[in-house]
């Protein structure tokens, strides 16, 4: 089988947790050694850190790689990786930018948002994915005979124990000309909102199931019935529709929250949403008994939130 | 600006519950309600806004069968001036690379400054935009949530984790995949749909696009869906049942026990 690589994400000099997940994922379809790839500017310490996970680490160090501009990183990888390589990435916003095009330039196949790997049959690797925002799963195969790029969903595969005493190979000189038709300018941080949902003990979180902007009031009423420690948060479609401020969005592209109780009301439970819920007791209220949220919630209620939330608010109000 | 927007007809998950068929290897496809892929709608809206401001023309394109015609007309009713249907038996069973190959061939036939796609569609691969750009050797940015057109280049904002936005300058022509929330797609009324009902939509097959049929379709696909299944769930939520009053009483107890009330 072709040589297998794992792209090591790192931030502020620290190797991301996903590196060990990629090693575990690779081990599910190959017995061969997996090579880590560390790309950036001034990344000696990161490469050394990665060598505790991978038996071999390739380092590509260049000032042009200070910010991981996907177009520039792609050029470097195409110049360094051997033909027919299999490269694993964590399926994050950087890999979404880089990986599809990299697969074309390497002449290999591409599969993304993989939640598990069932093994290999020759050059066919058996993958598990989800479709329709997690409502159904699929068995999917990828033919890696001419190489492949595979994006693994962060957190889906348990991290491997890693105690390698690996070596770092410097391939910076092989990166070649890194001129690009896309130039990174800057990162803009979001404006602070009027509330900080990360501080609330209870989040009444609403999703597309709320249906109408006017219905948001029922979530506000419930929050008020619960009391001062509660706040209203939401899934992305509510922010996209401009019904609520972006500072109330929970998820990978929103806020990470850890309340005592998270009430997911009319939220399907897509991984980008649940990626922002890092603990607490999850109560899901959804009218679809098969909604994926019921697989991750602690308690589920099959109900129409437009009727259920006011009834709950009334009862709580009477109690006080 | 000549803008091409790639769109896809997909099952509307807001209108359907996706369930397995009786054989358990496919989803139940009868009675599915279809619509335009959510992300594509934002892409078309953005293209229309750019053309309203800078002049030019928006063309929408899809790879599909005769049914795909309805999403093209919907996007024309929204304000796209032209549409193209890419249809050929040879296209069937294409994986993302196959679709990107077909769309890239269509881009080459035109003279577009900007090519847009949605960030992802029903299968969640988020692949076609980036693959198409690489095939064309155009610069690419994904998850775009802001576009400012300059002269000869553009500034685009990409959504990255935690609500941050990564700003880039790009040369034209380029390919961008559009993230939801970049705008508010306009409402399409029945009257608008009626107005474009009889517009002629050109149909191109592999031959018209100068494509070798063997480079697309099932034969060329390296990624294949074998079947659909519902995963066995070990844990899953404890479902509260009974009358609404019963459920509410139980829920209040649970909320108290967990420090929420
Ligand atoms: C790169 C990227 C980043 C993203 N980041 C985020 C993020 O940070 N946060 C986020 O939330 N999403 C994010 N998303 C979007 C995410 O993939 C989903 O599209 C989104 O979370 C779905 O929101 P939802 O659950 O509210 O809507 P849907 O998936 O449409 O679900 C609505 C649910 O409501 C139920 N329902 C409908 N009506 C009722 C009713 N009357 N009563 C009860 N239940 C009802 C339905 O059964 C369904 O389960 C991101 C996507 C991408 C591609």
Structure report:
The complex is a heterodimer of chains A (320) and B (261). With 320 residues, chain A is an alpha/beta fold. In chain A, 25% of the residues lie in helices and 30% in strands. Chain A contains nine helices and 18 strands. In chain A, helix 7 (271-274) links the parallel strand 16 (261-265) and strand 17. In chain A, helix 5 (216-226) runs parallel beside helix 9. The mean pLDDT of chain A is 96. Chain B is of the alpha/beta class. Chain B has seven helices and 13 strands. Chain B has helices at 38-54, 69-78, 96-109, 128-136, 190-195, 217-220, 244-257, and strands spanning 2-6, 9-11, 34-36, 57-63, 82-86, 114-118, 140-149, 153-159, 165-171, 174-178, 203-204, 223-229, 238-239. Chain B has a nine-stranded mixed beta sheet, sandwiched between helices. Chain B has a two-stranded antiparallel sheet with strand order 2-3. In chain B, a hairpin with a 5-residue loop joins strand 8 and strand 9 (165-171). In chain B, helix 3 (96-109) packs across helix 4. Classes of the chains: A alpha/beta (320), B alpha/beta (261). Chains A and B meet through helix 4, strand 7, strand 9, strand 10 and strand 13 of A and helix 3, helix 4, strand 7, strand 8 and strand 9 of B. The complex binds flavin-adenine dinucleotide.
């Amino acid at each position: 089988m072709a040589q297998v690589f794992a792209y090591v994400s790192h931030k502020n000099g620290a190797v991301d947790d996903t590196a060990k997940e990629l090693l575990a994922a690779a081990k599910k379809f190959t017995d061969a050694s997996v090579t880590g790839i560390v790309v950036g500017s001034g990344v000696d310490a990161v490469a050394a850190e990665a060598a505790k996970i991978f038996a071999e680490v390739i380092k590509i160090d260049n000032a042009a790689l200070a910010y991981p501009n996907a177009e520039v990183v792609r050029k470097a990888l195409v110049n360094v990786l051997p033909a027919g390589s299999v490269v694993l990435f964590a399926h994050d916003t950087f890999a979404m930018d880089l990986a599809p095009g990299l697969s074309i330039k390497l002449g290999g196949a591409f599969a993304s948002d993989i939640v598990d790997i069932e093994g290999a049959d020759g050059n066919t690797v058996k993958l598990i994915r989800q479709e329709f925002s997690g409502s159904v799963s699929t068995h999917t195969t990828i033919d890696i005979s001419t190489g492949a790029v595979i994006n693994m969903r962060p957190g889906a595969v348990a991290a491997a124990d890693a105690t390698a005493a690996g070596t770092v190979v410097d391939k910076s000189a092989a990166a070649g000309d890194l001129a690009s038709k896309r130039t990174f300018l800057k990162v803009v941080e979001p404006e602070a909102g009027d509330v900080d949902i990360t501080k609330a003990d209870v989040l009444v979180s609403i999703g597309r199931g709320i249906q109408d902007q006017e219905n948001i009031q029922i979530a506000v009423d419930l929050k008020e019935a619960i009391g001062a420690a509660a706040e209203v948060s939401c899934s992305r479609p509510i922010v996209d529709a401009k019904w609520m401020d972006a500072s109330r969005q929970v998820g990978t592209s929103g806020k990470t929250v850890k309340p005592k109780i998270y009430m997911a009301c009319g939220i399907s439970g897509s991984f980008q949403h649940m990626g922002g819920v890092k603990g607490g007791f999850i109560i899901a209220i959804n009218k679809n008994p098969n909604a994926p949220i019921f697989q991750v919630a602690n308690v589920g209620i099959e109900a129409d939130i437009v009727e259920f939330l006011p009834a709950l608010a009334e009862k709580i109000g009477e109690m006080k | 600006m000549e803008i091409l927007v790639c769109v896809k007809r997909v099952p509307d998950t807001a209108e359907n519950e996706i369930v397995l068929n009786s054989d358990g290897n496919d989803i139940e496809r009868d009675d599915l309600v279809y619509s335009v892929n959510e992300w594509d709608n934002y892409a078309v809206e953005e293209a229309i806004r750019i053309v309203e401001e800078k002049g030019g023309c928006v063309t929408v394109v899809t790879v599909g069968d005769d049914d795909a015609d309805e999403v093209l007309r919907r996007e024309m009713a929204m304000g796209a001036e032209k549409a193209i249907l890419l249809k050929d038996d040879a296209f069937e069973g294409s994986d993302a690379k196959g679709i990107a190959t077909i769309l890239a061939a269509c881009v080459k036939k035109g003279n577009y400054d900007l090519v847009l796609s949605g960030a992802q569609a029903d299968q969640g691969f988020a692949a076609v935009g980036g693959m198409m750009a690489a095939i064309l050797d155009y610069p690419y940015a994904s998850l775009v949530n802001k576009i400012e057109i300059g002269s000869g280049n553009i500034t685009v904002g990409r959504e990255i984790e935690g609500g941050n936005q990564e700003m880039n300058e790009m040369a034209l022509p380029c390919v961008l995949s559009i993230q939801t929330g970049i705008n508010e797609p306009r409402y399409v009324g029945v009257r608008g749909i009626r107005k474009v009902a009889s517009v002629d939509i050109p149909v191109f097959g592999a031959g018209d696009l100068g494509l070798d049929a063997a480079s697309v379709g099932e034969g060329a696909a390296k990624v294949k869906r074998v079947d659909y299944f519902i995963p066995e769930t070990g844990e899953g939520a404890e479902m509260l049942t009974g009358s609404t009053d019963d459920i509410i009483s139980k829920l209040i107890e649970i909320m108290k026990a967990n420090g929420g009330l």
